[in-house]
Amino acid sequence: MNKPTQAQINKLPKWVQDHIKTIERERDTTIRVLNDYLERASWSPFSIEDGICTGEHQGPTTKTRYIQTEKMLVEHAGVRLAIHCDNKCIVLQWEDSEQLGVEVAMVPQSYQRVHLVSRDDMRHR
After folding, report:
1. Which end of the chain has the smaller Cβ count within 10 Å, N or C?
2. Which of 42, 67, 92 lies at the terminal end of a domain, its last residue?
3. What is the edge-to-edge ordering of all strands in the sheet holding 79-86?
4. DSSP 68
């Protein structure tokens, strides 16, 4: 959707023009506060990147949030992955999410990419 021109906005009733200006000010303030918050966050080896449509640009803008932690857990499709940093390396440790001793396979996919798959889902890959 294209942004309306100033001439198109000027044809609208005064109360609509004022309402648009208020919404634009609120959006601009929200974007500024979000960016300030993210820029002040302390660096951490753990972060989350999200594509958020803030209106700063057309389409989503990538925002990074740092997470102050020593270990992260990811659980999905019957697999639990623990990630932590140790000296000069990243440690990955995985198991079945129910911790029942079900085997989890590391399946190579491409250069520097693998899938962690529970034994029950191996045939679906």
Report:
1. N
2. 67
3. 71-76, 79-86, 89-96
4. -
